[in-house]
Amino acid sequence: MTEYGLTPSQTAGPFLHLALPWPDGPDVVPDGTPGAILIAGRVVDGEGSPVADALVETWQCDGDGRFDDPGFRGLGRCATDPDGRYGIRTVKPAALATGDGDTEAPHIDVSIFARGLLDRVVTRIYFADETVANGADPTLSIVDEPRRHTLMAAPDGAGGYTFDIRLQGDPDNETVFFDV
Amino acid sequence: MEQFERPRGLHPPLASPAYRSTILRSPAQPPVLLRQRLTEVTAPLLGEGRIGPGDNDLTRQHDGGEAQGQRIIVHGRVLDSDGRAVPDTLVEVWQANAAGRYRHSNDTWPAPIDPNFTGAGRVLTDSDGYYRFTTIKPGIYPWGNSPNAWRPAHIHFSLFGRAFTQRLVTQMYFPGDPMFFQDPIFNSVPDEKARQRLVSRFDLEATQPEWALAYAFDIVLRGPDGTPMEEPHDD
């Protein structure tokens, strides 16, 4: 078997807005979809300053656990604004059986691209109101307990969720990033 | 479940302080190893609906006329590391104009804007993983990373592949660029051979006589994990 050398990553740089944001990027589902939720937050750097030139990209199954539903794109994309804010309109994904007896709690995979990130960083959005499912999630169980809160989208009191991303910080406030 | 290889030592370290923007944006904590499950081995199906007319020709996206600059064809294949084509995957590109200026409000250095060049394109790979677009050769431009720093000419690429694990954003460079030696982004790739894979190849065969030069750039995404599996035996 021939081995082909992998292509390395490079930063998306400060001008990713030319190509990557789509007009419908933040809408994984259209406005008015039953069960639609808004997940919004800020991306900040090691000093807590807004990261105003990031792209937050999400990938998830639908409410039935499907990744190949032709009516559900599954992908969300939103560039951050001058305050580092982004927002994604989607539906809460289903829990997923792992095939080896575990069940993953509802979660969304997230990639962050930006100037100063030579490779994407990857995290996961979980939902703070899924206490029972989160307690049985095989990924959360391997994250140090004091850090798990950084993976929790918190209900915002208006039917949506808040999920902030801190690229750099102390163990208890830097977002947990994953090696996928 | 299918597992994808985890490249070690391939991608640039996120903390690469010669590229100053990494200093406050690179995580200080080590990443947590995530076992690849359904969400990691699937990817969106992004078809023709994501492509508009003219998205594969960046030189002809304006009614006012053709973009200024050296017309080039950029083409290649998107593959897995086992050589398997990655078909029907979205390739998004963006770049500076021939004078090295981006059509972006944050790019304010005094090089001319080309009214007939936006600098963004999109194509889908075909069933063989092949892609091709026409553009102009981007210029070298200065940036504020250090005194008198210049970026080698490059085109940004974004690819999805067929799994979340394969998602890749990178940059394609041009052979013989005089700015490689001083560029902390290009040189952030630790392995020399891997770094050279970011440099496209002048491709005489693909040039169009009396029309356009051509550069070939193959992109290789993570393949299946090559860890040998025990095969069942028939006794």
Give the key terms.
heterodimer, A: 180 residues, mainly beta, Protocatechuate 3,4-Dioxygenase, subunit A, nine-stranded mixed beta sheet, two-stranded antiparallel sheet, 1 helix, globular, B: 235 residues, five-stranded mixed beta sheet, four-stranded antiparallel beta sheet, 2 helices, 24% strand, disordered C terminus
Q: How many domains of chain A, as an integer? A: 1
N-end to C-end Cα span of chain A: 25 Å
For the largest interface, the chains and their residue counts are:
A-B, 73 and 78 residues
The number of helical segments of chain B is: 2
Number of helices of chain A: 1
E-strand count of chain B: 12
Number of domains of chain B: 1
The residue-averaged pLDDT of chain B reads 95
Low-confidence stretches of chain A: none
Share of β-strand residues of chain A: 25-35%
Instruction: Write the H/E string of chain B, N to C.
Output: EHEEEEEEEEHEEE
Tell me the Rg of chain B in angstroms. 19 Å
Short description:
The complex is a heterodimer of chains A (180) and B (235). Chain A is mainly beta.
Q: Strands, helices and their partners?
A:
The complex is a heterodimer of chains A (about 180) and B (about 240).
Chain A: E1 36-44, E2 54-59, E3 75-79, E4 85-91, E5 96-97, E6 103-104, E7 107-114, E8 121-127, H1 131-135, E9 152-155, E10 161-162, E11 165-166, E12 178-179
Parallel strand pairs in A: 1-10, 1-11, 8-9
Antiparallel strand pairs in A: 1-4, 2-3, 2-7, 5-6, 7-8, 9-10
Chain B: E1 32-33, H1 38-41, E2 71-80, E3 90-95, E4 120-124, E5 130-136, E6 141-143, E7 149-151, E8 154-159, E9 168-173, H2 192-196, E10 201-202, E11 213-216, E12 219-221
Parallel strand pairs in B: 2-11, 2-12
Antiparallel strand pairs in B: 2-5, 3-4, 3-8, 6-7, 8-9, 10-11
